[in-house]
Amino acid sequence: MIKCQDISYSYDGIHTDLDELSYSINQGEWLGIIGPNGSGKSTFLNILCGLFKPSKGNVMLDGEFVTNMSNKQIAKKIAVLSQQNSYTYSYEVKETVKLGRLAHSNSFFPSWSTIDETAVNNAMMMTGTEKMEKSFINEISGGERQRVFLAQCFAQETPYIFLDEPSNHLDLMHTIKILDVLKELQKQENKTIVTVFHDLNLASLYCDRLLGLKDGKIYIEGNTDSVLSEDLLKGLYDTSFQILDNPETNKKVIIYKSNVL
Ligand code: ADP
Ligand code: MG
């Protein structure tokens, strides 16, 4: 379980980018974070996984203060896909995925076991990256690169998986494929999944609960169906949507509306 209490964050020490946010994420659930650009979604995710230190408040991960945990201790629990993935070197695809296993290496000179090899191969199968293992990550497409970084997260084999806009650059087939993999991991291995989504239909299909941020504060929170209401979404995005029920899936369908058509 992750529990954060009264966390605030400011990038410049003057403006408040996250404002006294308290929230809990339960084991085995899939939380979707939604909200307009600049509302604090990425900042919140980075604080939850200890990448950013809050200026106020604290985060507890399975009963321990995240600020008291080493990077390696956190990496054994949480795999994170950031919104902007940096790659300084032109690693090969498989070498990049292998970096996900660093969290599990015990010595300064890491050994490579069959467990590591299996985890990497499985992660590459899950993301459809196995055929490009020898390609260089700076010589593949944006969507392919996104799948390589997703594979790195899966190879880490952590109980918590945090993905900031996982479907960025992905075509529709790969989007569904990756989100289905995550759903299976949630159902079969009780993984806790947190994803930032812009596509509300994907949020509707996959998430158990939604957290809507606006101006660095919690604007709405609740189970997915209750959050996906026309009034609440209009307030969150200052844009109108039409919401229908899909009787086949029992999920809400969000229809986008144009202001000019
Ligand atoms: P979101 O992910 O919801 O689009 P962010 O968490 O990235 O939003 O940003 C929240 C707020 O913090 C925004 O107002 C943004 O301008 C500000 N911010 C984000 N990153 C930086 C940064 N590196 N330096 C200064 N301000 C930043
Ligand atoms: Mg963001």
Keywords:
globular, single chain, Rossmann fold, binds adenosine-5'-diphosphate, alpha/beta, 12 strands, four-stranded antiparallel beta sheet, binds magnesium ion, 261 residues, six-stranded mixed beta sheet
What is the element layout, followed by pairings?
Blueprint: E1 2-9, E2 18-25, E3 30-34, H1 41-48, E4 56-61, E5 64-65, H2 71-77, E6 78-81, H3 93-98, H4 114-127, H5 142-155, E7 160-164, H6 172-189, E8 192-196, H7 200-206, E9 209-214, E10 217-223, H8 224-227, H9 230-237, E11 241-246, E12 251-256
Parallel strand pairs: 3-8, 3-9, 6-7, 7-8
Antiparallel strand pairs: 1-2, 1-4, 4-5, 9-10, 11-12
Helix pairs in contact: 4-5
This protein binds adenosine-5'-diphosphate and magnesium ion.
Adenosine-5'-diphosphate binds at residues 11, 17, 35, 37-43.
